[in-house]
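Need residues for this backbone.
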């Protein structure tokens, strides 16, 4: 369910699902100034683990136990597993075919308010493991060639995953205080009204 509220200050979009209420500011995206290097990710080991964030997500989302190798630095790297891409519905076994996707891409976060964050907040966003749908294992070519840095107005996964996808999108943007543009809000509302119970 979507409610639009307009006022002298900002327009907002409010979503109500899973018994919770989420509000996003609706405003145009800020263009320019994005540098992926300003959003450090996969660079540190997860506290208490030998994995980086990437390898931890690979291990957690594999449908079979993973095998790893340990490097001289003490870092463990996942080398085998079996994953299911929620975007396409396809299974895959080669770790080289896997991307760990930021459901709300780093560039999208930048355009939606993250441009104003300092480096440590950007690092925290890029490596957030506290919400299970912030980072997900997906098939590399789908992520890089189809989704890339697009928002739901320009990319949606297969129909069976669209409801989960846009709900995760809204939760992430709400949690991090990121805005949404009007086309994005319209696309999310379209999925919620047509595909979500």
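Answer:
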């Amino acid at each position: 369910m979507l409610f639009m509220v307009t006022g002298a200050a900002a327009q907002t979009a409010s979503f109500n699902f899973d018994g919770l209420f989420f509000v996003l500011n609706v405003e145009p995206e800020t263009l320019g100034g994005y540098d992926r290097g300003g959003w450090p990710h996969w660079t540190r080991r997860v506290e208490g683990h030998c994995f980086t964030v990437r390898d931890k997500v690979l291990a957690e989302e594999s449908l079979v136990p993973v095998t790893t190798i340990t490097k001289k630095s003490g870092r463990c790297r996942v080398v085998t597993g079996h994953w299911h891409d929620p975007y396409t519905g396809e299974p895959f076994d080669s770790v080289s075919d896997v991307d760990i996707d930021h459901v709300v891409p780093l560039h999208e976060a930048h355009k939606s308010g993250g441009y104003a964050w300092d480096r440590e907040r950007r690092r925290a966003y890029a490596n957030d493991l506290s919400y299970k749908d912030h980072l997900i294992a997906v098939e590399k070519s789908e992520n890089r060639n189809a989704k890339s840095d697009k928002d739901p107005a320009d990319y949606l996964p297969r129909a069976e995953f669209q409801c989960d996808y846009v709900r995760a999108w809204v939760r992430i943007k709400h949690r991090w205080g990121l805005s949404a543009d009007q086309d994005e809000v319209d696309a999310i509302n379209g999925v919620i009204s047509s595909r979500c119970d």
